[in-house]
Amino acid sequence: MADTINRGYPKPxxxxxxxxxxxxLMQTFDLVDADIGSILLALNGKAAVxxxxxxxxxxxxxxxxxxxxxVGHTHAFDSIEGVSGTASAPDGYVLAxxxxxxxxxxxxxLLGAHKHSIDDITNLQSALNSKLxxxxxxxxSLKSAIADADTFIGLDSVAQNAPKRYSWAAxxxxxxxxxxxIYAPINHGHAMSAISGLVEALAAKAAxxxxxxxxxxxxxxxxxxxxxxxxxxxxxxxKPKIVQIAIACVANExxxxxxxxxxxxxxxxxxxxxxxxxxxxxxxxxxxxxGANANVMYAMSKSTxxxxxxxxxxxxxIVRAFA
Length: 323
Prior knowledge:
Number of helices: 7
CATH superfamily of the domain at 192-322: Immunoglobulins
Oligomer: single chain
CATH architecture of the domain at 192-322: Sandwich
CATH class of the domain at 192-322: Mainly Beta
Shape: rod-shaped
CATH topology of the domain at 192-322: Immunoglobulin-like
Strand content: 15-25%
Radius of gyration: 57 Å
């Protein structure tokens, strides 16, 4: 006798008469009925294929959804784990990973020191082609003396370092402005009272009292102006016994050298009635009047001995007094 493959139900024997297998078939039908009954009972506990559920029917679903973000939500960079400092980063910064954290950095700091070929920089080669080749500088002729009109190349710091030409006259004026603020002129003078402790120290020198000359004064360089009157305080306390005058060269003329040469001159007219200086000192001031001539001073050339009417602006008057 054979059984069914899946459930093992007894099967009729082919060689038997139907009457001989009636009990066997009844047994088989009971087994089938029991299995179908179990299936129907199981199906009664199942939902339909097309059924639905309310959210509350699904355990924990509502609470789980409340912990989720909306579909259209956004995030700030700094709210992302591993990212920091983006909110305050300037425009143009990029994110770079530093010690495991993404932080904003400037592109220059990330690139660091690096190089480019000339071809990498737009128009650089054409700009260089328009410049004077450094190798040619050594072939230029040398000039032994610099003139005010000579020019030099420099960068203008107030115009994004644009290249500019500067005259030697402008450079000299700039240097003069700097040095004038730091240093006094070479041919300058001081009143004794302007030198700390000098008057007191000299007063303590009893031996000097016996000398006929105990005090001195130097006016420093005074501008020479045609026809002008000057009252120069001498601080001697008495009328000077001796007064001397000289002129100092401040710009080369008649072979005299600026800041080097000084010429003593006499009082009164020089070669003409309206040239020279008249001096009239008193207990307080050295009073003087310049001649009205356009060229107040007159002197002989240092190299030829020829008379020269000196240019006022190229000389300064110095007055020295003694008492």
